[in-house]
Amino acid sequence: MSSLSRRAAMGGALGLLAAPAILHAQPAGGVKIGLIAVQTGPQAALGTQLRDGFLMGLRHLNGRLGGLTAETVMIDDELKPDVAVTKVRTALERDRCDFIVGVVFSNILQAIVRPVTEANTFLISTNAGPSPLAGRGCNPFFFATSYNNDQVHAVIGQVCEDQGYRRVFVLVPNYQAGRDAVAGFKSRFKGEVVDEVYVPLTQLDFAAELSKIAAARPDAIFTFMPGGLGVNLVRQYRQAGLANIPFLSTFTVDEAVLPAQQDAAVGFFSGSNWAPNMDNAANRRFVADFEAAFNYVPASYAAQAYDGAMMLNSAIRRAGGRLADKDALRAGLRAADFTSVRGNFKIGANHFPVQDFWLTRVAKRADGKFQTEIVRKVLENNVDPWVAECRMR
Amino acid sequence: MPRLRLDVALTLLVLVALALAPFIGLGANHYLTMFARMMILAASAVSLSFLVGGAGLASLGHAAAMGVGAYAVAILDAHRLTDITIVLPVAIAAAASFSLLTGAIAIRTEGVNFIMITLAFGQMAFFTASSLAAYGGDDGYTMYDRTEMFGSRLMENRLFFHYLCLGFLVLCWGFCAMLLASRFGRVLRAARENPLRAEAAGFAPYPYRLLAYVIAGTLVGLAGVLFANATEFVAPAYMSWQRSGELIFMVILGGLGRLSGAILGAVLFVMLETWLPNLTAHWKMIFGPLLILAVLFMRGGLIGFLGTRRG
Amino acid sequence: MSTGLFLVQALNGLQLGILLFLVAAGLTLVFGVMDFINLAHGVQYMLGAYLGAALAAATGSFWLGLLLALPAALIFGLLLEVLIFRHLYDRDHLSQVLATFGVILFLNEAVKAIWGAAPLQVPVPALLEGGVVLMPGLQYPLYRIAVLCAGIATALGLWFLVECTRLGMLVRAGATNAPMVSALGVDIRRLFMLVFAFGAMLAGFAGALAGPIFSVEPGMGDHVLILAFVVIVVGGIGSIRGAFIAAVIVGLTDTLGKSLMPDLMRLFLDPSAARQTGAALASMLVYIAMAAILAFRPRGLFPARSG
After folding, report:
1. Strand partners of residue A361
2. How many residue pairs from chains A and B have C-beta atoms closer than 8 A?
3. Which of A110, A243, C55, C69 has its CA 20 to 30 A from that of C7?
4. Nearest CB to C121: which of A200, A215, A262?
5. What is the CB neighbour count within 10 angstroms for residue A192?
6. Are the CB atoms for C174 and C33 separated by under 8 Å?
7. Cα–Cα distances in Å, from C154 out to A98, C18, C22?
8. Is B194 part of the contact surface with chain C (CB cutoff 8 Å)?
9. Binning pLDDT at 50, 70 and 90, where does residue B285 land?
10. Cβ(C104)–Cβ(C43) under 8 Å?
């Protein structure tokens, strides 16, 4: 075979193999969203909430974002950072996603920030809000619709101050988010932290810690125990007869785990930027349609993802559907010109929300389901503590 | 010996395919990402196969040694030391010492006890890495840059990196094969098959096994250096026992006792991991039974299966 | 730490140990008698929890749920044994590992597909609600006391079975030297099947008991599996007595370690760092203890095997 015909053969083969790439190319007038959340393992319930919240938003928008037909590519990060990086790269390079939305957990978000932003693609976090990304690591291509992790924990610190609790027991898991929780709490709580206990993420039995709490006799306990950890803690806390010590928490008694905790969690407090019973038109519509469609009570993961869809919609509309005009999109995202289910919502200088924070309490609804309900507003128009370190703009 | 030639031939075919991949239309970045992962994991699996097949030491802590190499890169990166002349020796020293220290105790046990103690050391490494708050703790550490090669940023060139990983894989395979064929390898095999007889012949198995363990650990530590560069991100999750388990699966899947089998197992594993989820969200419900069927009916892994079909 | 708190922590450690024993007993039997590494033991525990939860919800009674979960777990164990495991007894350990891992993947995904990813709720039975006041302000749940008693009763029952009955003698002989037992004319296949089914039932029993205390979710068996393996390795493969003692050691080490480590670290570090380092060390403590024990007794505390 002569070298010429061999090259022709190679070229032909190349062309054939390139064909799929051409077929994968975007239909004109559409926008592709890579929705990334954990779908496997014990924390999958949170990823499901995030996904359903975003899909609910799309449904209310009739499947269009800013007038463009939206296509969603689901990415399961499996709670493995390197798997997330690989899949996100595929989403950017092969699937040509225009936006990456999602992420429940901070460590996954930290892993994908660089690949996404370096590809000049917008990364919208609808849950994780680690402090580095709010401060020094703030990025023109990164936006959050949720909160900065520290803020939510600070709410409880403020509540303790307001209620006059002098001695508080702190119980968190031993990982970065747990340490951030303690830091956030302490940023507003000026009393005595009776004890700071860190438990392994695989902890099943809190008997040892509960005994410590009983022995210490604090005014209240502050805890951050997401997922299955929260289920175990709440149940065992109640069983140990400690319920008379006020239980103040973040992400521990949210709607994702309430179905497992049920009556054990009733009366326990939580700090949050949203609750299902928030009384505004957008929220009422969101919660009602969500429960009708998916048959479970939405948690903040869903609500923030819903807001994410709305925010994207408003941004793309403002940019006139020109997805290539990144500056216009950024301006649109910064404007946050949409009605949030949280009511008061703006995007701050570091691309994190400026919003109100509330004290909520677990209650049993008339239909037998459980949800958190607003008790009172704690922080108004709260800006996260890291914004000063952000050197953007 | 037709069976031996078949599996080596198949593996060589795979390697050649990987070498040609960028030129036959599979050169897009996301393909290269998958191939890099494939080749690095294949090299790790080869070193584990050397340990398991050659020395009879099934380590469930191999991923920890890989993580040690990766963390060496990350920690040096945090202090802005990115040149390969610093990174490589440090990573080798770290992985080797980790393997030496843990192996010294672990190799005194055998069978399932060995598996468990290597798991224990792996977990200890995992928890230690998780508590290194300065390097991200369990959130992981995002690297500023890839390792520089004598001042140049060659590693950031995807194509160069592709061939670097391929070269490393080939070297790993060749090195382990050479070791197994040497006198050292024969002593290892003798010690694995019949320790008493080996001792009677005058060879104390312990130092040979320890050396094999350290060599395997160092090789996988180097793979860890490449892995850190591939993902530009290092997390304690890289050291978990689940990752070690995945490496064992690659070794068994391809066929126990054959280095080439480890490579095939790794390639198969990454392909399944990438494509099965596209079929259905519940792909594990298919993969699990597939695995069981494979073990039941494909004795000797992929290679054994292919060999019996031929023979 | 006051003596009162110390005693309470010791009780907590004992209770964790007993629960671990329930899981580890079946595992060590299966491994000891059949030389079979059953990684799927963890999902059998999980299945027991799910079956207990589902049956309790269906019948409206925790006790009925528990009672029905036992034969259900037994049947399921038998199913696994007949379909898959009995073909693996003569294979090498790593093949067994791979196959049982396949079972884990399948079952973890299956329970997620059937019951969803969110944790299930299992109420404590009305009879055992409330508790005993151990310390002012701290109530020790009656349910946990019941679990403790159930565990000790099972341990005694197993001991009786293994030491004082003919079947137990066969099991002990099988754990020491299986081929010999077969050569002596015992139907080794039936013995294996019996042992495996019993082990599966024990794991399921532990899971069903754990339902009201621990979160019932996919993957709940994975961490318990690791701890169970630690227990049987420390105790010595094939030894029930070893499993019991090792389980108590592991439970006490883990619980007391968590309580004492941060205080110990306070001697060297400032309070905040001490707590974090102490917590990190405490989570490693079980593994450190295992490594230490294996360093001196590479075959565990009470190895059953001969040769």
Report:
1. A269, A373
2. 86
3. A243
4. A262
5. 12
6. yes
7. 60, 10, 8
8. no
9. confident
10. yes
